[in-house]
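User: I'm writing a short report section on ligand binding and want a predicted complex to refer to. Could you take this sequence and zinc ion and write out the structure as tokens? A short remark afterwards would be nice.
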Amino acid sequence: MTDHSDLHDKMDALIAIARRCFDRGLQTNAGGNLSVRLDARDAIVIKPSGVGFAECTRENLQVVGLDGTIATTGGGLKPSKDLDFHLDLYRIRDDINAIVHCHSPWATGYASAGVEIPCLTVQTIEKIGRMPLIPLSPNGGPQTEVEISPVFRDPSIRAAVLANHGTIGVGPTLMAAQYLAEIIEETAQIAYVRDTLIAARGRSAAELPRFGTAAGARAAAG
Ligand SMILES: [Zn+2]
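Assistant: Sure. The structure tokens for the complex follow:
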């Protein structure tokens, strides 16, 4: 039985995070998608296809069972076309309660160049560790659960970048997944500035000092 209080709380949280993502310029137009798992664990709320992050409402959000059964087709719309990879990630990882997938421009630029975004700040190492670059599907189309799920079967993976497409952040809450979407984009901008400056000075990344987290430095100091 659907807990309507939980459903409305999750819908409102999704609407707020989608608005934040839009306001920060991480997703324009009607692309990208985001979803959140209901407390009952067997269903999710997901953005509909063809609706922008700034236009999500309780009336147009979609509710879908983890088995793919569509419970609510709000506004006569359909769930996001990336529904299948969202469902699969919830099925394979109990710790994932929310997914933010967006086409943020700096990160997608790296992904379109076939370059993995380096985790080059202490925060990125701490919060993400590594964000693998997932190639296009073999027929050249966008990534599906066939390409995405194997990467996320590693429980340490919290973020990934999709070649020629965008980013994925997952987390225990929508805010946690959104923070990752923001860190991925911020890191791509920092990487671009770093790489541009060191190239202009005729240096290479290998010459830069090694660094890590405060915890790592404490451990190294014994
Ligand atoms: Zn997409």
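A remark for your report: Helices lie at 4-23, 83-92, 105-112, 122-127, 145-152, 174-200, 214-221. The chain has seven helices and eight strands.
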